[in-house]
Amino acid sequence: MSTQFSVIGVGSPIIDLIAQVDENFLSKISGDKGGMVMIDSGELTRILSMLEPGSVKRSPGGSAANTLFDLAHFGVRTALLGTAGEDEAGAFYRSELQKAGGSIHALRSSVQGTPTGHCICLVTPDAERTMRPALAAALEFDPAQVTADDFADYTLAHLEGYLLAHSEEKLRFLMSTAQAAGCKISLDLASFEVVNAFRPAILRLLEEFVDIVFANSDEADALLGRIPPEEQLAQLRKLCPAAVVKLGEHGAWADCGAGARFIPANKVNAVDTTAAGDSFAAGFLYGYLSGKDAEFCGRLGAALAAETVQVFGASLPESSWKKLLKMV
Predict the structure, then answer these.
(1) What are the φ and ψ backbone dihedral angles of 317, each rounded to 5 degrees?
(2) Helices marked H in the chain — which ranges?
(3) Which terminus of the chain, N or C, has fewer Cβ atoms within 10 Å?
């Protein structure tokens, strides 16, 4: 199957290293459970040395990229704009993106010989994931070198909030360049740590550029305060034409312009929440770009997220895709 629309993602192409750990393991590393804290290659090596040999699963990752991988399975023409290393991990990443149906034409290569970025995803028995990324080559991505040609012929540019680490002005440049090329803009806020660090910038960018924003409950709390999610949705809709507040197992609130809709979560046995929000965004965006209403978009997003939390990592088996493709 194929679609009449296309999506280019902008973000960090990284390899997820997924391991099951107990609660005590998290006390041995810095940062909060369930969040994201950047680390360097030395800390990456240290944490990996603490894990049982053979216990780590490898899969392609990155917030925007996870969404693209899923959209590609739906037949959407996709590409990823970011920087990976010219190493075995980078070759693995490019190969997996192409296998999913995505394009690597916009993927830059490190010019400094820097290795591909990795993210350790530590999954506790409650299925919560705690992320510790070492971005490596992904840090070489320079938004200033992006041109309108990179976004030409794409319907939507999907950006991850982690890009704010480059600076507000560079993310503003990316958004304005994509917009000038005719793209709609979607933004995933990425993590509550990102929102805490860049809240004023996020509010400005949402109002000026973003067509659809995705926030989970922690991110929405950090951005708008601890108010009911339907009120958070209303606040986001004042800034953007479409908005989604994701509540995990408690569902989601969504509004594409025709009023707020509550989307119940699919009840499943979750083993790993890694990339669940990215998968929800993929399902939602497929419906959104197909011209569907918020309820259809949300139900497809919820179905895709439900499949994702039942496996370790972001890559779904073909049996899952057969079920999902019947929905569209």
Answers:
(1) -75, 160
(2) 23-26, 41-49, 63-73, 88-100, 148-151, 168-180, 192-208, 217-224, 229-239, 276-289, 294-308, 318-325
(3) N
Q: Reading across the β-sheet that carries 184-188, which strands appear in turn?
A: 107-109, 77-84, 6-10, 156-160, 184-188, 212-216, 242-246, 252-255, 261-263
pTM (two decimals): 0.93
Q: What angle do CA 213, 219, 223 make, to 5 degrees?
A: 85
User: pLDDT tens across 171-203, in order?
Assistant: 999 999 999 999 999 999 999 999 999 999 999
Domain at 179, CATH number: 3.40.1190.20
Cβ-count burial of 22 within 10 angstroms (0-12 exposed, 13-18 middle, 19+ buried)? Answer: exposed
d(CA 55, CA 124): 14
Q: Is residue 229 one of the residues assigned to a domain?
A: yes
Residue 30 in domain: no
Tell me how far apart the alpha carbons of residues 137 and 118 are, in angstroms, rounded to a whole number. Answer: 10
Helix, strand, or coil here: 181?
A: coil
Whole-number Å distance between alpha carbons of 78 and 59:
19
Its domain, for residue 228, covers: 6-14+61-116+137-325
What the block records as the tokens of 32 is 């909060």
